Structure formats: structure tokens, C-alpha cells
Amino acid sequence: MTTPDPDRAAAARDFYSRWAPGYDYLARHAPGIRRLRTDLVDTLDPAPGDTVVDVGCGTGATLPYLRERVGPGGTVVGVDFAPGAVSRAHGRVDRAGWKNVIVCRGDATRLPLTDADAVVATFLMGMLPDPTATVREWFDGLDPDRIALLDLARSHRLPGRPLNPLFRLAVRASAPPGTSDHHGESPTHVLDRRVAAAHRAVLDACTTTTHETRAGGFAYLSAGRR
Questions:
Q1: What is the CB neighbour count within 10 angstroms for residue 215?
Q2: In terms of Cα–Cα distance, which of 50, 27, 49 is closest to 145?
Q3: Which of 162, 191, 199, 215 could pair with 126 in a Cys bridge, judged by C-beta atoms 3.0 to 4.6 Å apart?
Q4: Coiled-coil annotation: which residues (predicted)?
Q5: Strands 219-225 and 101-105
Q6: What's the rounded Cα separation, in Å, for the pair 20 and 83?
Q7: The whole model's pTM is what?
Q8: 189: helix, coil or strand?
Q9: Can you give the pLDDT at residue 179?
């Protein structure tokens, strides 16, 4: 597994904490985002009573979708590395009074957990230095029956492909400062490569799989059962 750069990791935590309010708004109100989250959870298909881990939960936008599916007998655990995002997720849980939803700080590459029925990650894989190794670590460390990933990357089909230049601008604007200089290539290329690697790792590790693109080809949804 690629070792994260501590300085860059700290800078990323600060960046995503500082912009947590803006990301929270987009996570809940961007066009089509509710449909994508619903599709993600439907594809994961958690059962009542399951324990589901939401890795990189951010400000907690997916938590209510998962909680509805696992019911009062299940547990949802959200993990994120950015203190500002975790704080907003805590606020969402506290205001709703959800007793079976837990949010904690943690590194996606070294989760502070040892067991789960299902794992889900939303718009996370492009941030991980070695997404293939991280997905394998989730399987080894949590031993889940099911996993589902939802990510954004460039579109390779119509109608999205002509909009790739706009997508590149959006990715550049939302990436932590210095991303291009650190990797020696554009943030969009880094995102594409990491998303492809993570989704392939899921498909390779599972016996029953599904892979789809949504939102004009920009949203990649992969899931599997073991």
C-alpha cells in the first residue's frame, strides 16, 4: 500500500474541514444527488439489522439513506478524516436523535473498526493514494458481505463526454491546493485513474457484481457480494 504523505494528509484535512459547509450543501442539493444516493443504497441492499460502515462519510449526507434501510435494529457507522466534516455529521445525527448512527474520525486506509456486514463509500476513492490496496484492506479488516462505491470521473459516453472540459474545471477547483504539482498531472487524470482502480478492485474481489454509469456517464456505481 502506498504510504500517505503526512504533510499532504494534514493539508487535505484542513482543506476539506474549511470547505465542509459548501460540500455539505452540494452533497444534499446538487442536481440528481438524492437519486444517486438512493441508487447507491439500493445497489448495496443492506438488510434490517445490518451494521453498515460509510467510509469517508463527509458531512453525513448518505447516513439517513442507510439508517432507513438497516432499521432500528441495525447500526450505521460513519468515518471521515476531516474534523470539520465530522462535526457537521455529528450535528446532523444529534438533531435527528438517531441512536443507532455513530460518526467518528478515522483514516479510510486504517479504519478503527473490525467488523461490518456492508461497506459503502461515496465520492471518496479519488482521494486515496492507493485505492486498490485500501479496498482490499476493507475486505480483510471488516470482512463485509457487500460493498458499494459511488464516484465521479470523466464521462466516456454521450451525453456527458462533451462536458468533460467543464468537469475538469470543477475537479481542479475542488481539489486541495498543490494537487497538480504533487502528482505531476492534472487532478482529473489522478481522479480517473484512482476511481477506475478502486472499482476494478471491487469487481475482482466479489462473486456477484454490478457496474453502471449514471448522470451522463460521470457517476460510476459499482457493487459486489462475496
A1: 18
A2: 50
A3: 191
A4: none
A5: unpaired
A6: 9
A7: 0.93
A8: helix
A9: 66
